[in-house]
Each structure stands twice: as C-alpha cells, then as structure tokens.
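Hello,

Following up on my earlier ticket. Below are the two sequence lines again, exactly as submitted.
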Amino acid sequence: MIPEAGSGALIVALILALYGAVAAAVGGRRGRPALVESAQHAALGVFALLTAGALLLIYAFLSFDFSVRYVANNTNLGTPFYYRITALWGALEGSIVLWGWMLSVYTLIVILRHRTSARELYPWVLSVMLSVVSFFLLVMTVAAPVFARMTPIPPDGRGLNPLLEDSGMITHPVALYLGFTGFTVPFAFAVAALITGRVSDFWITTTRRWTIVAWYFLSLGLLIGGWWSYHVLGWGGYWAWDPVENAAFMPWLTGTALLHSVMIQERRRMLRLWNIALVILTFSLTLFGTFLTRSGVIASVHAFSQSSIGVYFLSFLALVVLSGLGLIAWRWDTLGAQGELDSVVSRESAFLLNNVLLVAAAFTVFFGTVFPLLSEAVRDVKVSVGAPFFNQVNVPLFLSLIFLMGVGPLIAWRRASLENLQRNFLWPIVIGVTAAALFRLLGVRSILAVVTLALTVFVASTIGVDLVRATRARRAMGERALPALGGLLLRHNRRYGGFVVHLAILVVAVGVTGSQAWSVHTETTLKRGEQTELGGYRIRFDGLRESQESNHGKVTGTFTVMNGRAAGAVLEPAKKFYPQQSPIAYVDYRLGLVDDIYLVLGDFAGDGTSATVKFQVNRLVSWIWIGGLVLTLGTVLAVLPERRKAA
Amino acid sequence: MRRRRWRWLLPLTAVPVLALLAYGFRLNPRDIRSPLVGRPAAPFALTSFEGAPMQLGALRGKVVVLNFWASWCYPACYEEAPVLERGWRAYRDRDVVVLGVDIQDKDEAGRKFIRDFSLTFPNAPDPSGKVSVDYGVYGVPETFFIDRAGAIRVKHVSAVTDQVFRDTVEALLAEPAPRR
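Thanks for your patience. The regenerated structure is below:
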C-alpha cells in the first residue's frame, strides 16, 4: 500500500505542477491575479505531496520493504539506521525525488519573498519554477519510477554501495543538489525578464543573493566531494577530472563568472546580454551534469546506475537551451549595453577578463569531457581524456584568475589613474615579488609552486592593504582599531564578504599547490615489527586482527607512527569484506595543518605476519578543507542584509 | 532600428552540441573489446556447490559456455538463468558444456538461486575471486564462449538471450574439431 500511496502522491503532484505552470503563465499574460494565486496554491500542494512522497520512501527504507526495487537495490538488513534514511539519495531515482523536493522548497521561498516585490516578473518566475518541477516529477513518475515494485520479492536487499556509507555521502549530494537546484531561481528570473521584456537591471539585483547561495552550496558540494574522495577512496587525492566531477565544476565556473559580471551590470549598465546568457548557460550546465552522470553516455569511475532517463534529460536540456537562445534572439535589440568600456585599465575590464577566463575554463572542461564522444563520432576511435590535459590547459587560466582576484577589487572603475594603481598595488607587488624570492631561497624547487604561492601572497596583501587603509580611515574619525574593523566588515558586508571568499579561494589554492608539489608516497611490504620511513615519519607494522561488523568482515592492521624518536599515533587502516561486493579499503589517517599521514592497507599474509601498506605523507591538504570553512564565513557575510544605504 | 534577422540563427549554434550528445546514446562506453578474446582461456579448478570438481582443463574438445553470475544481480542474472538452463538441456548431447561461476555472493543465497531456477548445469562459487579476476570480469552477468581448442572466442556482457546462445554455440560447433 505504501508504495502505491507514494507513487499516487507524485502523480497528483505532477498534475498540480503542470496546472500551476500553465495557470501562472496565463495569469501573467492576461493580468489575472486570481489565476496566479491559484498557481501559488498548486505550488503549495506540490510541496506537500513531494514531502509526503519523500517521507513514504524513507518509511519504505526504514521498514525494509524490499518489494520496492529501489529499496532492495540500496539497502539490506545490515544497513545501519542513518544510512537507511540517507539511502533516499543513494542512487538515481531517489536523488531525483530529493532534487524535486528541494525545487519545491525553493519555489515556496520564491513565493514568500517575491510575491509582492517582483510584480511583473513574478507570475512568469512561478511558471518557470513549476515547469522545472514538473519535469522532475515526470522523471520520477514515468522515466525512473521510484516506487516501482519488483517480483519475486528478495529476502534481503543488495545493500548500499559500502563506499557510500560515509558521512561525506550524507552531505555531499545534499549540498551539490542545493547548488544545482538553486540556480533554477536566477534562471526563472532571467526567462521571466526575457518574456516580459523587462530586461533592465531589476532581475539581476533581485537574484543576487540567490546566485550567491546556489554558488556557495555548489562550492561546498565540490569540497565535500573532494573530502569524501580523499578519506574514503584511498588513493590520497581529492580531484581526478572525472566526468562526474567536471559535470559539477562547469556550472561552478560559469556561476562564478556570473557573480562577478552582475556587478558590472549593476554598476555600469553593461553586459545585459552576457548576464542573461550566463544564467541560461549555468542552468543548462546543471542539467547537462545530470544528463552526463546518469545517461551512461560517457564512461566514468562513478558507477552510477544507467537508465533511460538520459533521453528525458537531453530533451529537457534541448528545450531549455533552444528556447533560452530563442528568447535572447527575440529580445536582442533591448539587450544592448547602455554603458561603455572607457579604458582597458579599469575594473570593468578586469572583471570582463575574469569572465572570459572563467568561461574559457568551463569550455575546456566541457571539451575535454565530451571529447571521447566527439572522437568516437568523427573518427570512430575510443579515447579517454585524463588529468594531464585538464591540468595543462586550466592551470595557466587559474593562475591568471588568481592574479585578477588581486587586481579586480581594488582597481578604479572606468579608468584607473597611475596614482590609483600605485596606491593600491605598489606594496602588494613588492610583497609578492619578495615572497617569490623567499620561497625560492627556502628551497621551493617547483616554479609552478613558487608562482602560485607568490600570487597568493600578492592577492592576500591587496586585501590587507585595503583593510588597513579603510580601518585607518575610520580610526581617523575617532574609532578604535578592532571596532573599526568589525564595523567595516558589517557595514560593507557585501564587499568584505567577497574579500573573505577570495581569501578562502587563496587558502584552497595553497592546499592544492602544497599537495601537488610536496606530497610523497611509497608502497611497501612490512613484516611484523618492521619499520619504514617517508618524509620524516617512520611507521612500524604491529600486526593484524580480524573482526566481524554488522554487515561486513574486517581485517585491521595496526601501525605506529613515529615522528623523530618519539612514538606517536597508532593508525589502523583496514580492509572490509562485504558479502556481495569486492573488498574495500578503509583508510586511516592523521590530519595536520602541514602533514597528513595517510595509510591504506593492501595485501596481507593470512597469518598476520606481514602486510603491504600504501604510506603517504600528504602536504597542506587540510588547507583545502579550512578554505571551505572560510568560504562559509565569507558567504554568510556577503548575503547579510546590507546596513548602509545604497551608494 | 535595423532588423537583425541573423539573430534567429542563434539557437542553431546549440544544435551540433545537442546532436553530439544524442549520438552518445548509440554508444556504450563500457563496450571495450576484451583483450582475452582469441586467447586461450585461463585454466581453473573450482569445487561445485554439490562438491564435485569443476575444471576447465578436463573439457578440452568441447564447447564451453562459462557464465559469471550472482544471486543479487537482478534483473539480468534472473533473466538469463532459464536461458542458460534451456541451452544446456538442448546442447548437452552435442558436446556443449555450460558452467556457472557465482561471484561475490553468499553461499546460501547462491544455493537458493540455483534451487529457484532448478539449474542442472554445474555451478561453483569463486570464494577467492581468482577466477573472475583471471577472466577480467567487470560486472555480472558476463559470459565467455570457449571453443573446442580451449580459446575464448566471444565475451558477452549483460544477459544472454536464447538467440545469442544458439547462434554463438552453433557457430563454434560448425568449426572443425581441433587435431589432437
């Protein structure tokens, strides 16, 4: 009964969403508020029904209802309680439910926030939001029915992929989907602006916070994904340029471009066409990402289930891209710029360059990701594009972007005078160059690392110069240093929120540089009591023990880590044997601000006398995760309501 | 203002990309030719669920259909189990042997699967996973058709159908028997 109730709820939700989408559009076109209001009620109903659907699915998981195929495929009797709840988004069908549910929540927030503030655009925004919800409801009822039954009913389920039994897998998809779905709101506003012809700057200012929030969750999703990869997969890395990672990275790049280009439009009335195109592109890329990961068109190490939903996603993607571009073509004449670029040496052009670089990076990632497909279509040759291509092309782009990160916020609008340049950049450049020389003297051999770190120092000092100067200005008016700084951050929260986010990116950049340049690893077989040394650390193999866990057997190795002469931490990497899967490694590690000790257990002798261990000393990786925390602070600061009057 | 008719060409720019993605549906990225095809099949010696020895070496001169399966592999393994059983019954008198290898499975669940489908051809668990590694098994089900000279001739990924079974086996039977 429960599964039938669930699928019934989703079908009714689909009908309501379709009705709401049409009613809002007709209401907007004919100017009938009653219809728009009715669409609002429909949206409320969609939210309630989707919530019910999701809860029923969770209930099916908790009660081990293996007659539901999705439940049987993603849990078994040994699956712990929490993972039975999060198994909701453990695979395709349930992820779509979560996605649709988040969209319905966003729709409600849009209704609450913009019902009265965005009068002309609002009905169309609602219509677009409900159309997107309808698409996802169509997928979960027709293309990949989540409540589908299976016969014969198996006595036990297949179980969640053990690699997914990790806290990272609880939060990573949620953050990522919040990011993906979040970009639906700016997209809905952009389409509404095109349809109504009100392509002025209102929609941009209205959606600024939405874009930041979506971008933040996407960033968080990417970072948590990296963390999961790092501490679960056992290869000691956090990013592999896998198609699935690229799929989430592309909208992040274009979304980052958008965050910057809207400032130009707000300030200088330029880039209207560009911004609308960027929003449509970003939203399309979120759909493309899902298409890519779920259609099985491109091979990926992420072994997602493949299904027929690829066709649905591609059709919807085509609809979005073609109608988006069609709307732009229709409104072409009204999308012209009012402002003009006065000088190449100006903030506008720095931002423009930033946008060009970010979109170029997104394009190269796109190109590298679909190249295997292109190669097979044109030359009938199977190829795979790996990290070397992506690194080679993107590293120079990212370095230029870091440089611009220092220039953009401080250079003058319109036309920078020599005096402006000198005032803002003389010291940071001196500090940056000094830092480069210092790093070199300290024995940093990699040129790439020297350049990256020097650029990081340069950007950090531009932020420092700005803060010192602004604080000094406030102190001159009689405030004390710390309250002056605090007041500055809160009063100009948008600007300084941006600075803090930039700092976060710098911290992440240091982490990436350090881990690429200075990590060391070895793989060796040790007899019990034997030691090996790497990067200033020694480990001693102390033995193996076997144990039986709730749903798997486990062989744990004990290793003592010694730094210098003192015996330090004990690490216990293990190998887990699940009955229905290949054995997986359980990594053990000690995180440090500078060094992570990272052990993966390989083969071992059955009697426990020897074991092969992968031993890594990874450097500065923790900075990447710290960057995530700083990013959170900066985002919160940036979206706080502004205290000062608009300048 | 001058009418810009060319602007309507804008949506067309997206068409090649969309077409390329649509083309992707015709491909299977996992469809990589196994390097084992044409090579001698790796010998193995397993013990069947009934406790009888199951050795490839003893079957030289016969056509061998070697199937890798698991009880949790739903629906593909469930679809092909009756197909394999039918094929075994139809061809066993013509020097064709069907062998099943149950991988990454619980012993009890594997036995239940065999009972449920009343399988009569020999089936053995591969507890160490060595045989599936030797054959480069990526997922279940995968089926290897081995000719009378002991060489792997066809690797079939996903459920075997009656048609595939018949055609492949007939083709291998039509070849002249190897000289001894």
